[in-house]
Amino acid sequence: MNSEFKVALSHDIDRTRKTYQYFTKPLKAIKNGNLKALKNQLYSFFRKNNYWTFQRIIEIENEYAVKSSFYFLNESIKWDIFRPDSYKLALGRYNINSPKIQELIRWLDRNGWEIGVHGSYNSFNSLELLKKEKLTLERIVGHEVIGIRQHYLNLDDSTWSLQYEAGFKYDSSLGFAGSKGFGDRIGFKDNKHLPFYPLNNEFLEIPLVLMDANFLQVENKWEELDRVISLCKKHDAILVINFHNHVFNTREFPGFEEAYIKIIQKCISENGKFFTLGEIYETYSKKV
Ligand SMILES: [Zn+2]
User: Fold this and answer.
1) pLDDT at 181 over 60
2) Which three-class secondary structure state does DSSP give residue 141?
3) Short-list 67, 110, 115, 118, CA closest to 94
4) 3-class secondary structure per residue, 202-228
């Protein structure tokens, strides 16, 4: 029997244009002796909109009649010449209040996609930043924003309470982050299969299950996906997927877009039903 399960597609919008990557990526390609990657990097010098892939994402999702959640980052970290770790965070950022970004956010919101906050790097323990980022996005869409996922999946003991205090209704940051030594992992972190209430109130954690770069690195990834789907069916868990917008640049991220499409097709053939994370939250809130 091909039983149903739930799928929630999402996109963390870390950056909308290429900045420092024009220099770091070709250097990395040279270091790795990867001539093909180097060629593709040099090619991108002559193209605009390398990370502006939104039309393509919308096109793919329209083709399969599915909707996703978009989490927009509002990074406020300052560039500090003496702190190399600030370079990547500060120089790559975009202005959420620019007319082009606002127009994109409003268009997605009006047309049935969900808009949420991608909590900035230092916001995981800052009520002030969480409140500010929520309010900024709410001013753009003109209504309440209920969901958040933290950049780099930064979580500590205080994050969920602070998110709740800031007015969020759900978080989706519990998952395997690529940068913390679990680069090849997909699945349920800490064996938390089901969304749960970490604060014993209505605030819901919806675990993240599959992230783009992690998935691409997994050996036997399609067998692994089968395993995860069967776990979703067994536990009535939700297959929460995150594909960043920049990986839809097929020249620089070969195989990613193809994998995203194949995952959607696989879920459809396995009787997956698609929801935004906001809709998942609504279903849960009705159960309580
Ligand atoms: Zn991020």
Assistant:
1) no
2) helix
3) 118
4) CCEECCCCEEHHHHHHCCCHHHHHHHH
Calculate how far, in angstroms, residue 110's C-alpha sits from the geometric centre of ligand 1. Answer: 24
Listed residues: CB within 5 A of ion ligand 1: 12, 14, 151
Residue 149 CA to ligand 1 center (angstroms) comes to 8
In the predicted structure, residue 227 carries a pLDDT above the cut 60: yes
Cα 142 to averaged position of ligand 1 atoms, centre (Å): 24
What is the sign of the dihedral through the CA atoms of 19, 134, 209 and 181? positive
**What distance in Å separates the CA atoms of residue 90 and residue 75, rounded to the nearest whole number?**
7
Higher pLDDT pick, 113 / 79 = 113
Q: Are 241 and 209 in contact (CB under 8 A)?
A: yes
Position of tokens 């370079």?
A: 87
Q: Which domains occur in the chain, in start order?
A: 5-16+51-287 (3.20.20.370)
- The reported pTM is 0.88
